[in-house]
Design goal:
Strand content: 15-25%
Helix content: 25-40%
Distance between the termini: 51 Å
Radius of gyration: 15 Å
Strand order of the largest sheet: 1-3-2
Structural class: alpha+beta
Length: about 80
């Protein structure tokens, strides 16, 4: 069972396996929507976003493709 708590973007990333940049991007996109249309509940603070953890896990199950490995750039030939 998922804890019923508010978490920071970094804490949400640690618990879900997503990068904090992905969670922050998700929070920004949802913040611009009317509250009734948001996929996750958010709070905005001066130091960033707080995310409702159960909604974040629900998003991951319904819409997410799971954490993806970091892409490797082309190998340079030296």
């Amino acid at each position: 069972m998922v804890e019923q708590i508010w978490v920071t973007v970094s804490e949400g990333a640690d618990k879900t396996g997503y990068s904090r940049f992905r969670i922050r991007e998700l929070a920004r996109k949802n913040w611009s929507l009317p509250e009734s249309e948001r996929l996750i509940k958010l709070r905005r603070h001066t130091n960033g976003y707080m995310v409702w953890l159960p909604d974040l896990f629900e998003y991951k199950e319904k819409y997410g493709h799971g954490p993806q490995p970091q892409r490797q750039g082309p190998k340079s030939i030296a």
